């Protein structure tokens, strides 16, 4: 088997307000991107990794290449590709750029948000294993604990959505490689996640259990939560 991993790290991180692209913000002594790469350690078989970085940013490209060198040597000869490519104006465009840089020999692809920096290694292996076992798209998700209301344009409540039928999506999202490339090539609209693009292309997607530790770092509060989680894991 060969697992291709696309790590999207081209976002600006405006909501974090640190003035640098989010994936390059340090948490407990290493960048968000470096922490994300550490999640790959337990992937079996051959592995190819593409980091999708901020376009036209040579300084960040060099930092991302360093991170690949420092975190992925553990794979030895099992590492069949490690590159950094420029992202696009949307996450969709960034994923597309990443897919184009993976070796055709990969049977499964995992698409992961760098911002979900503390995703446990076990979630990567579980998603990849489920894709191989089923041939479907596989997405980790969590039950929704809040009551969710649908509203109109003026914020008047229309109705309550049955939350038992809802799951909040995480990453990595896993797919048969050729199938996801086909879905992106068919230009089936700009879905907000890869499962949406895969499904628009006719693919079947199933949800498996996610992990609270795979939360997306978006705000300063999330950054503090990430620091605390790393400290707890070091005990
Ligand atoms: O902005 P948000 O946190 O939802 O982005 C999710 C992930 O997609 C982040 O890891 C971000 O770096 C990435 N992204 C990207 N290219 C964009 C926008 C977002 O790679 N144009």
Explain this structure.
It catalyses: 4-CDP-2-C-methyl-D-erythritol 2-phosphate = 2-C-methyl-D-erythritol 2,4-cyclic diphosphate + CMP; 2-C-methyl-D-erythritol 4-phosphate + CTP + H(+) = 4-CDP-2-C-methyl-D-erythritol + diphosphate. Belongs to the IspF family. Belongs to the IspD/TarI cytidylyltransferase family. IspD subfamily. The record marks 15, 22 as: Transition state stabilizer. This is Multifunctional fusion protein. It is a single chain. With 235 residues, the protein is an alpha/beta fold. It has one domain (2-233): Spore Coat Polysaccharide Biosynthesis Protein SpsA, Chain A, CATH 3.90.550. Helix content is 32%, strand content 26%. The chain contains seven helices and twelve strands. It has helices at residues 32-38, 58-72, 91-99, 121-134, 177-185, 194-200, 220-233, and strands at residues 2-8, 26-27, 30-31, 46-53, 79-86, 108-113, 137-143, 148-151, 157-161, 167-169, 173-176, 205-209. The strands form four sheets. The protein has a five-stranded mixed sheet with strand order 5-4-1-6-11, sandwiched between helices. A three-stranded mixed sheet has the order 10-7-12. The relative contact order is 0.17. The structure holds cytidine-5'-monophosphate (C5P). Cytidine-5'-monophosphate binds next to α3.
